TrEMBL record, chain A:
This is Iron(III) transport system substrate-binding protein. One of its GO terms (cellular component) is outer membrane-bounded periplasmic space. It comes from Litoreibacter meonggei. The keyword RNA-binding does not apply. Residues 1-20 form the signal peptide.
UniProtKB/TrEMBL annotation, chain B:
It comes from the Bacteria. The modification 4-aspartylphosphate is found at D51. It holds the Pfam family Trans_reg_C. GO terms for molecular function: phosphorelay response regulator activity; transcription cis-regulatory region binding. It comes from Litoreibacter meonggei. SMART domains: REC, Trans_reg_C. This is Two-component system response regulator TctD. Signal peptide: none annotated. InterPro entries: CheY-like_superfamily, OmpR/PhoB-type_DNA-bd, Sig_transdc_resp-reg_receiver, WalR-like, WH-like_DNA-bd_sf.
From TrEMBL, chain C:
Keywords: Kinase, Membrane, Phosphoprotein, Transferase, Transmembrane, Transmembrane helix, Two-component regulatory system. This is histidine kinase. PANTHER family: SENSOR HISTIDINE KINASE YKOH (PTHR45436), SENSOR PROTEIN QSEC (PTHR45436:SF1). It holds the Pfam family HATPase_c.
C-alpha cells in the first residue's frame, strides 16, 4: 500500500512538472489503477477528487480493467489544454458550459449518442458531443453569525436593499467570485447580467462594500462558515450542499427571483485515443440519476427535468452558440471592464 | 286394309303400292296434295301414308288441315329426315307415327297395326275360318268361348294361313312373311312357331297341317 | 416467334411508366423546393444574425468596437445545433471572432448580405457577410461582419424531406400503378365481356354480338358480326345441302329397298333371295349409320349450348318406348317399363335425352334375341339412374371404356346392323348433363345393362 501510494505521489509530481512544461496548470493528478489493467482512460476534469472519486470507483467496479488517469485543472486551463495545446485526453469534464460549448462548436469534440440518450432531456445533450450529467444551481451562502435561520434576503432586490441599509455591518464581509480568474464565476456573472439588470446594481453595491473576491467556492464557503464573511454570492450549490453536511455555521439560500443552473458537462475530445472507454464513462455519467448512492457520495445533483419544473425560479443555462458571445474577445474585455468598474473600487 | 299413299316420287310410290298389294292391301296413290284431297273426298281409308316434301305444298300443312277438319284417319308420315327434332315436331303436328326412308315393310305394317290399335279403329279388320276369328289389328284369336292374344310373329304367321285357307305355304315363304330382313331366320324357327300356333288353335275349328316336302296349310279341324 | 402483345400489359406498363416519371418528378421537385426553402431559412437567419451584429457596431475613441449581442448568436441555435462561427473585420483587419474564417464573397454594397458556401474546420459552412461603414474617422471604416453556420441541420432536414418525399412518391407510384392496373382492366372489360359472350356461345350460335361495345370496338364487332352473318348463311346452306342430300339419297334408297322387297317376294331360288336379302341389309345398314351420324352430330352440337328445360323423364321414356314398341314387337321383344308413379322432374335437353334413350333402346332391340324382355328402369336416389337391361348376348369380355368410343362396336356383334355410335351418343348426352354412362352385365341373368346416371341440376 505504502509503495503504491509513494508511486502515485511520484507520478503526480512528475506529471505536475510535465503539466508545467505543456503550459496549462495542473492542480492535481491521480491514477486509479485497475486490478488487471487492460486500458487507461485519461480524464481532464475541473471536479475535485473528493467529488469525483466515488464515481471513478463505481465506474471501475462496473468496468473492471480500466485504469483511470484523473487530472484536475481549472476551467480555463482545461480549455487551454484542449483548445490550444492539443493535450491528449480521452474525456474532458468541466463546469464551464461556455468553454465546453466553444470546444464542441470549434470542432474539438467527438460525436457520440449515449445509450441512455432517450431518457435524457433534450437540453442535456448538444450536437451529440456535449453531455450534461449534473445540474448545479448558483446559490448564496450566508453566515449564521449574521443571519438567523430564515432571515436572509430571498431576492436580489432585497439583498441590495439590505446591503445599502447596513453598509457598516457588511463592509468587507461579502464574497463573490473573481470572474477574471474563475471560468465558473465568469459564466455565472455573464448569465446574471443577461437575466437581470439587478446584477450590475448588486455589483455596484458589493463594490462599494469592498467585496472580497475568491477563486473558488470552497474558500468562500469556509469563510462564510467561520464567520469571516457574512455572505457569499454565486457559490456552486453542489459544493455548498456537500460542505453543509460536515460544516456548521452557514445556510444556503436559493434566491427566489431567479437561480442560474449550471450544467456540468463531459465531452470526448476529438483527439481521444481510448474512445470506447470514454463512451462507457459518458454512458455511466449520464445515467448518474439512477445511482442515488453516487449522488450522495459525490454530492453532484444529477440531471433531473422534473426538479426544474417544480421550481420555476431555476433557470438552466441553455447550450447553444449564444454561450460563445461572452467568450468574444471584445465582449469579454468590455464585460470585465464593466465588472471591474463596479466591484473593484479602490478602498480609500 | 285400304291405304292412301301420298308420295310425289312415282318410282317409290309404284314400288310401295306393289309391295303393299303383295300383302293383300288396297292402295290408292296421290302424287300431289290436291289429288290426295280429291281421293279422300270419294273414299274412306284405313290409313294414310304421307310424304312430307310434295311439289304443291308441305305435307305438314296437309296434316294440320286434316286435324283441324277433325278427320281421324290415322296418318303415318314417311320422312327422309332422320333428326330427332324433326320427328318430334311431326308428332306435335298430329302425325300418328312416322317412318324414316328407307323403311322395312314389316316395320311399317307393325306401326300401322299399332296405330290402328291405339285408335281402336278397324275393329272389323278380321278374318274368320271355321268359326275361328282372327283380328288382324289386335292379334286377338277367338273361337267358342276362348279368346287369346297372339304375339306378333304368331299373328303374322297365322295371318298368312287365314289369307288363303287350305293353300300350302312353303317354309321359305313363311320365313319371308314372318321375319324382317335383319333377322337371321332358320327353317327350324318356322317349326317352332307352327308348333305354338297349333297349341293356340287347339279346340278350334282350324288346324295347321304339315304337307310333307312342301310346307304347311290351314284346314278345318 | 413474336410474343403476342397484350393491350392490358401495354396499357399498364405505359400508365406505370407515366406514374414512375411523375413520382420521380414529384420527389425531385419536393426535395428541391424543400431544400431551397431550408437553405433560404438558414440564409435569412444568418443575415438577421449578421445584421444584429452589424447594428451593434459603434466607434469609441476613434476605434471601431463591438458589443456582440447575445441574441445574434443564440438565434442561430434555435432551429438546429449547428456550429457557428463569426468574424468581424475592420478595413480587412480582424476585429474579433474567428480570424481564419474565409470570406470569399465579400459584399460590395452596404447592408446587402452576400452569401457563400465554404469548407471550414472540416465542415461545409454557409457564410453571410454584411458590409457596414462606421464613421470613426474622417474617412470612416469599412466593416465586414461575417456569420457562418455548418449545414448538418440543413442536411438532416433535406434528408428527412427526401425520405418523406420518396416515401410519398413511392406510395403515389404504388397507388397509381394499382389504379392503372384497375384502369387497364376496366378499360378492357368490354373486350373481355365480348370475348366471354362469344366464347360461351355454342358453335351454332351465330347471332350478331349485341353486347354494349365502346365506340373503339364497334368496327371490330361490326366486322365480327358481318363475318358471322356470312358464316351463318354458309352453314345454313351446308345444313340445307346435307338435309337435301339425305332426302335425295334416302328417297331412291327407299325405292330400291321397296323394289327389292317386292322382288324378294317374287323370287324362288334361295341364292337369288339371299342376294336380295344382302342388298336390303346393306341399305338398312347405311341408313342406320346415316341416322346415327346425324344423331351424333346433333348431340355434339347441342352439348355446346345445353338447354336446361324442365321435363318429365317418365313421360320422355314412355314416349320413346311407345315409339320403339312396334320395332321391338317385330321380334316379340317386350319393352318393360319400371317407372315410378307420377312424373320424374328433371332439367335437361329433352331432344338429347331422347336421342340417347332411342339409341340405347335401338341397340338393345338389335342385340336382343327374339321373344325376350328389355327393361327400362328409373331409380331415384342421390342421382337419377336410368337403366336399360336386355337379355341379349351382353358385352362379353369387351372393355367397357372402349365401347363408348366412337365407331367402336362390340366384338361379338358382327352379324348385327349398326355403326357403333349408339353408346357414344348416349355417353356424350350423359356427360353434357354432368352425368355418366355406366355399362355393366345384367345382374339377373344374361344380357347387358346400360345406365345413364344423371345428377340433379
Amino acid at each position: 500500500m505504502r509503495v503504491a501510494y509513494f508511486a502515485l505521489r511520484l507520478i503526480t509530481a512528475l506529471s505536475m512538472w510535465a503539466g508545467a512544461a505543456s503550459g496549462f496548470e495542473i492542480e492535481d493528478r491521480q491514477i486509479y489503477n485497475a486490478a488487471s489493467e487492460s486500458s487507461v482512460l485519461r480524464i481532464i476534469s475541473t471536479a475535485d477528487r473528493a467529488v469525483f472519486e466515488p464515481i471513478i470507483f463505481a465506474f471501475q467496479q462496473a468496468n473492471p480493467g480500466i485504469s483511470v488517469d484523473y487530472t484536475i485543472t481549472g476551467t480555463t486551463d482545461l480549455m487551454k489544454a484542449i483548445y490550444e495545446e492539443n493535450a491528449a485526453f480521452d474525456l474532458a469534464i468541466s463546469s464551464a458550459m461556455d468553454l465546453q460549448t466553444k470546444l464542441a462548436n470549434d470542432g474539438f469534440a467527438r460525436s457520440y449518442l449515449p445509450t441512455n440518450a432517450a431518457s435524457l432531456p433534450d437540453w442535456a445533450i448538444w450536437r451529440d458531443q456535449l453531455f450534461a450529467f449534473t445540474q448545479e444551481p448558483a446559490v448564496m451562502v450566508v453566515s449564521d453569525t449574521y443571519f438567523s435561520q430564515g432571515a436572509a434576503p430571498q431576492t436580489r432586490d432585497a439583498l441590495i436593499a439590505l446591503l445599502r441599509a447596513n453598509p457598516e455591518k457588511f463592509r468587507g464581509r461579502i464574497g463573490t467570485y473573481d470572474v477574471r480568474r474563475s471560468g465558473f464565476g465568469y459564466l455565472m456573472a455573464t448569465q446574471d447580467s443577461r437575466t437581470s439588470e439587478t446584477f450590475w446594481r448588486l455589483m455596484e453595491v458589493m463594490g462599494r462594500l469592498d467585496a472580497q473576491l475568491y477563486c473558488c467556492s470552497g474558500e468562500m464557503i469556509a469563510d462564510v462558515a467561520s464567520g469571516k464573511l457574512a455572505l457569499a454570492y454565486n457559490v456552486l450549490g453542489s459544493y455548498a450542499a456537500s460542505e453543509l453536511a460536515t460544516t456548521d455555521g452557514f445556510q444556503i439560500v436559493e434566491l427566489t427571483d431567479f437561480v442560474n443552473v449550471m450544467l456540468r458537462t463531459v465531452l470526448i475530445p476529438s483527439n481521444a485515443t481510448n474512445v470506447d472507454d470514454a463512451q462507457a464513462m459518458v454512458d455511466f455519467l449520464t445515467a448518474l440519476r439512477t445511482r442515488p448512492d453516487l449522488v450522495a457520495a459525490s454530492g453532484l445533483p444529477p440531471v433531473d427535468a422534473t426538479a426544474l419544473q417544480d421550481n420555476p425560479a431555476l433557470r438552466p443555462i441553455r447550450f447553444g452558440p449564444g454561450l460563445l458571445v461572452f467568450l468574444d474577445q471584445l465582449k469579454e474585455s468590455k464585460f470585465l471592464r464593466s465588472w471591474e468598474n463596479s466591484i473593484v473600487q479602490e478602498t480609500p | 286394309m285400304r291405304y292412301l299413299l301420298i308420295e310425289d316420287n312415282l318410282k317409290l310410290a309404284g314400288a310401295v303400292v306393289e309391295r303393299l298389294q303383295l300383302d293383300g292391301h288396297a292402295v290408292d296413290h296421290a302424287d300431289r296434295l290436291d289429288a290426295a284431297t280429291a281421293c279422300m273426298d270419294v273414299a274412306d281409308y284405313d290409313l294414310i301414308l304421307l310424304d312430307i316434301m310434295l311439289p304443291d305444298g308441305d305435307g305438314r300443312d296437309f296434316l294440320q288441315r286434316q286435324r283441324r277438319a277433325e278427320k281421324r284417319t290415322p296418318v303415318i308420315v314417311i320422312t327422309a329426315r332422320s333428326a330427332v327434332s324433326d320427328r318430334i315436331s311431326l308428332l306435335d303436328l298430329g302425325a300418328d307415327d312416322y317412318i324414316t326412308k328407307p323403311f322395312d315393310f314389316a316395320e311399317l305394317e307393325a306401326r300401322c297395326r299399332a296405330v290402328l290399335r291405339r285408335q281402336g279403329g278397324a275393329a272389323d279388320n278380321q278374318k274368320t275360318f271355321e268359326g275361328t276369328i282372327l283380328n288382324l289389328t289386335t292379334g286377338e284369336l277367338q273361337f267358342g268361348d276362348s279368346s287369346t292374344n297372339l304375339r306378333n310373329r304368331e299373328l303374322r304367321l297365322l295371318e298368312v294361313f287365314f289369307a288363303a285357307p287350305g293353300q300350302v305355304f312353303s317354309k321359305s315363304h313363311l320365313i319371308d312373311r314372318m321375319f324382317s330382313f335383319s333377322d337371321e331366320a332358320s327353317e327350324n324357327a318356322i317349326e317352332v312357331y307352327v308348333a305354338r300356333l297349333r297349341k293356340r288353335l287347339e279346340g278350334s275349328g282350324a288346324r295347321i297341317e304339315t304337307v310333307r316336302g312342301l310346307g304347311y296349310r290351314m284346314i278345318a279341324a | 416467334m413474336r410474343q403476342p402483345t397484350s393491350i392490358r400489359k401495354r396499357l399498364f406498363y405505359q400508365l406505370a411508366a407515366v406514374a414512375a416519371v411523375l413520382s420521380l418528378a414529384f420527389v425531385l421537385v419536393v426535395r428541391g423546393v424543400a431544400s431551397q426553402a431550408a437553405e433560404g431559412t438558414q440564409d435569412d437567419i444568418l443575415a438577421a444574425s449578421a445584421t444584429a451584429i452589424a447594428d451593434s457596431l459603434s466607434s469609441e475613441q476613434g476605434e471601431v468596437t463591438l458589443e456582440l449581442p447575445y441574441s445574434a448568436l443564440s438565434m442561430l441555435g434555435t432551429i438546429n445545433e449547428d456550429r457557428v462561427f463569426y468574424r468581424v473585420t475592420v478595413n480587412n483587419e480582424t476585429l474579433t471572432g474567428y480570424a481564419d474564417l474565409p470570406v470569399t464573397n465579400a459584399p460590395t454594397r452596404l447592408d446587402t448580405p452576400a452569401f457563400s458556401t465554404e469548407i471550414y474546420r472540416g465542415d461545409e459552412v454557409r457564410l453571410t457577410s454584411i458590409l457596414r461603414r462606421v464613421s470613426n474617422s474622417a474617412t470612416g471604416s469599412k466593416v465586414v461582419v461575417t456569420v457562418a453556420q455548418t449545414r448538418s441541420g440543413l442536411a438532416a432536414i433535406t434528408q428527412r424531406i427526401t425520405v418523406t418525399a420518396t416515401g410519398v412518391g413511392l406510395l403515389f407510384f404504388l397507388l397509381a400503378t394499382t389504379l392503372s392496373l384497375l384502369a387497364a382492366t376496366s378499360a378492357l372489360r368490354p373486350l373481355s365481356r365480348m370475348t366471354g359472350a362469344v366464347t360461351r356461345r355454342g358453335p351454332s350460335d351465330l347471332r350478331p354480338v349485341t353486347e354494349d361495345t365502346p365506340a373503339e370496338l364497334a368496327p371490330l364487332v361490326g366486322a365480327l358480326n358481318s363475318f358471322m352473318a356470312r358464316l351463318r348463311s354458309s352453314l345454313t346452306r351446308t345444313e340445307d345441302l346435307i338435309t337435301e342430300a339425305a332426302h335425295r339419297v334416302r328417297t331412291p334408297l327407299a325405292t330400291v329397298r321397296t323394289q327389292a322387297e317386292v322382288t324378294h317376294r317374287k323370287l324362288n331360288k334361295p341364292e337369288h333371295k339371299q342376294a336380295i336379302r344382302d342388298m336390303i341389309r346393306a341399305i338398312d345398314e347405311s341408313s342406320r349409320s346415316a341416322g346415327q351420324i346425324l344423331d351424333h352430330a346433333m348431340v355434339t352440337f347441342r352439348a355446346d349450348s345445353l338447354a336446361l328445360d324442365p321435363l318429365d323423364l317418365a313421360a320422355l321414356i314412355t314416349e320413346t318406348c311407345d315409339r320403339l314398341a312396334p320395332t321391338a314387337d317385330l321380334k316379340d321383344i317386350a319393352l318393360l317399363r319400371k317407372l315410378p308413379d307420377g312424373p320424374v322432374p328433371f332439367k335437361g335437353d329433352g331432344i338429347m335425352l331422347q336421342a340417347a334413350l332411342h339409341n340405347i333402346l335401338d341397340n338393345a332391340i338389335k342385340y336382343s334375341p327374339e321373344d325376350s324382355d328389355i327393361t327400362v328402369r328409373i331409380e331415384v336416389n342421390s342421382a337419377l339412374h336410368l337403366s336399360i337391361t336386355d337379355q341379349g348376348r351382353g358385352f362379353g369380355d369387351m372393355d367397357f371404356e372402349s365401347l363408348t368410343t366412337r365407331y367402336a362396336r362390340g366384338a361379338n356383334v358382327g352379324d348385327v346392323v349398326g355403326s357403333g355410335l349408339g353408346l357414344t351418343i348416349a355417353d356424350e348426352v350423359a356427360r353434357a348433363h354432368g352425368g355418366r354412362l355406366e355399362l355393366s352385365h345384367n345382374k339377373e341373368g344374361q344380357g347387358a345393362c346400360v345406365s345413364l346416371i344423371l345428377p340433379y341440376v
